[in-house]
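[Meeting: bench + compute handoff]

Bench side (C.D.) handed over the final construct sequence. Compute side (W.E.) agreed to return the predicted structure before the next meeting so the bench team could plan truncations. Sequence as handed over:
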Amino acid sequence: MFQSLRDLLPQAVRRGPVSVQAEASWVVETCNACLTAILPPGREGDVMTLFFAQEGTVVVGCRNAAAAHFILEREADLLALLSERLPGVPVARVRTRIVSDFHDTME
């Protein structure tokens, strides 16, 4: 008669906009981990993934032009890490955006 919530949840996530939001969140968190892996020591606070667009673009916020330049130079490495950690998710390119404060970009 009744189904457990655990059995219903995967079906609900696969339907509608929830799955798109869940995938985007997964990509953002994974990209932040990958950024930490490729950045020089002590520079982890200079960049943060802002969002993942459905056309396969990851937008990375950078606190300065040097960080943005570094990310763009290492785009191939970042994309390789993302494709390894996110099988089946089509991440095609990385864009950077200079931001003064990460909290301002998230509101």
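W.E. noted at the follow-up: The chain has one domain: 5-105. C.D. will use this when planning the next construct.
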